[in-house]
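Checked the freezer inventory, then went back to the computational side. Two predictions to log before the end of the day. The first one is the construct we discussed on Monday; recording sequence and tokens without edits.
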Amino acid sequence: MSYVDGFVLAVPKANLDAYKEMAQLGGTVWKEHGALAYVECIGDDVPYGEVTSFPRAVQAKDDEVVIFSWVVYESRQSRDAVMAKVMADPRLKSDWSTMPFDGKRMIFGGFQPFMEL
């Protein structure tokens, strides 16, 4: 069964084009190194919940959009191998202070699917 890395983050609307460029490069690199799929989504119907919500989770401000993305791999073992190559790829070397979003508010993690239809 596959393995999935998931990400949720807030991007300032003014930085959305820069984020899309960064995501395009990231998707290219992940796929070249073996990811099966790479998906980036802009929040379209993500209301601010009273207790929990995507915007609350990343402390999204009024001038930010929520991004939800995921990468699919063949397995956890494949993910670990792909991730090592991605992290070593010089195309993704960047100064975190120049990122088009606040990485401290990004949520990410690896998930083992229990059902795929």
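The second is the one RB wanted added to the comparison set:
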Amino acid sequence: MPTAIAVTSADLVLPPTDHQTPTAALLPSPDTQSLDAAVAATQILVEQHGHVVALYPASLPARHERRLHTVRSVLESDRIALLRMDLPPLGVAVLVRQLRQLSVCDFQAGVLASAARLLSHYVYAGALLNTVARLDRVPVGLRSHAKSWVPGSQFAVLANPAPRLIKVGTGEQLTGPEFATHLVLARGQSASEWVTESLAPAWRVQGIAENALPAESPKWWGTGKLVEFAAFLPDISVLYQLVASVRREICSWCGMDLIGDRCGFCSAPLLPPEVSRGTA
């Protein structure tokens, strides 16, 4: 069985891109599932799949995040990776689907978990907002805050991979990816077509899909009057090459394979070569 990819909300599970892409497991809120039930369900998940890689947005309520860590502690399992992502919720959903795609490939669980950080750099996640007055996850200047109170103002905000904010209608444009992408959007309380009519052509996206707005999105962006979007690499062969091209290392703490500078399972940083040799 492939490594299980898990999420904290069903709205972070985008439709599969092909018949081979598995779905994601759900790790519910403590409001809807008792601790005993959560422990039992997660134990079954680990037994069936060997390892579990769970992704969740940084805006997840603290009580839900504590539940995740409690379940892992109760099970005393080193086979559960909990990845807190700074991406907006729709960006997290895109990354979740990419890991679901890669879970059927020949990557070990440690590589798959640490690949989340690598692939996140290729997700262009943002939103069209009617106000930035309560936006605190992307740097916003005082002038933009003042302008946000002007009726009819709209702002295009890019949160990842590099934060950027522009006022729509000024001739400015968000810097987009320099590689071929598809785009997914999710509408809140906004009927604007700016994302499809302006942003998508400027970014030369090769496909557009619409999905339901994740429940955490209004909290993340500070308003429900938004259209969230994320441009991403859709081709599994490209994703595979990206991950496979990175040198693999062994975590000095838990022994998992990894790519990059940090283990996805125990969060231990990769030791410099001279330190690794000294502790061998």
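For RB: The CA atoms of residues 8 and 27 lie 5 Å apart. The domain at 124-232 is CATH 3.30.1180.10 (Hypothetical Protein Tm841; Chain: A;domain 3). Let me know if you want it refolded.
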